[in-house]
């Protein structure tokens, strides 16, 4: 398929103006890859290409959710299980009311992450110590009453999974999700990538320029954090999303796929940090891991996608979008972190999405 002129122009403009160094775009329509476009530099020495591996940041949460849901299917845990039944140290301040369902849908009430996260990275803090800090973080509200996006939720989920199975969470993800889905260019943690030279360098990350730099340092790449530790090629990310589309391949059961891609938040009010202007009490629908674009959050991913769409953003400059109505999956991977300016980061991703979707759907119809 011809690369849409508007998409090519947008990407080259962003590279010329030094807003991003490079990008990978992959589009699937009705289960077939119809567009691949690689432009600019993945890192200082390697152009963006089919072999480039990109830190997916928070898109990792959906891989973690898929791992947890495989365990649900196997009877290891349930969505309404209290977290304290596995994590007895999680006590006080209504923490005993937190259920697995709350953790998967960002309704457990925990803060986003450590207020000293940059310092924690520079100190090469272990996941065990990050988990210990999460246990004492104050709750923002009673579990299940609101939605607030949080990385801490995923530390609790991974710890529960490890205690119940006796297996490290990275191994669970590999055995239950990555391997059966055939995702050979997806790595958790990133350090498992056979060739470090393939990994995209992300500008503007926490602790940039130090030995603790998120995504870029040896420590950062070895940190198997379930909220942000996955890296993948654009092709593999599109294949992963295809496993949740109608008619797609199934590792998870059809009922599980349906549950993960449907609203599970019961209409509670809440906030999602990348978008505002949705009223005093916005309603951000969330599936199990997947974020949902609905009439309450129009254009969360793109104004050119339907209200049946699901997807996720990654702070490293990434976005995956899946629209069952148009039978369309769009993956856009860039390498400038939202810390460099969240508004410009969001505009870039939305502009790339719009020019990609419009150009592709004009050609396939």
Report on this structure.
- The radius of gyration is 19 Å and the shape is globular.
- The mean pLDDT is 95.
- Strands 2-1-11-10-9-8 form a 6-stranded antiparallel beta sheet, with helices on both faces. Strands 3-6-5 form a 3-stranded antiparallel beta sheet. The chain has a two-stranded parallel ribbon with strand order 4-7.
- The chain is an alpha+beta fold and 365 residues long.
- Helix 2 (60-73) runs parallel beside helix 6 (152-165), helix 2 (60-73) crosses helix 7 (169-178) and helix 5 crosses helix 6 (152-165).
- The protein is built from 11 helices and 11 strands.
- A hairpin with a 3-residue loop joins strand 9 (310-314) and strand 10.
- The two termini are 12 Å apart.
- The chain is 32% helix and 13% strand.
- The protein has one domain: DD-peptidase/beta-lactamase superfamily (Beta-lactamase, 3-Layer(aba) Sandwich), CATH 3.40.710.
- It has helices at residues 5-16, 60-73, 100-104, 117-122, 127-136, 152-165, 169-178, 218-222, 234-242, 254-260, 342-364; strands spanning 22-29, 32-40, 54-55, 147-148, 186-187, 231-232, 270-271, 291-292, 310-314, 318-323, 328-334.
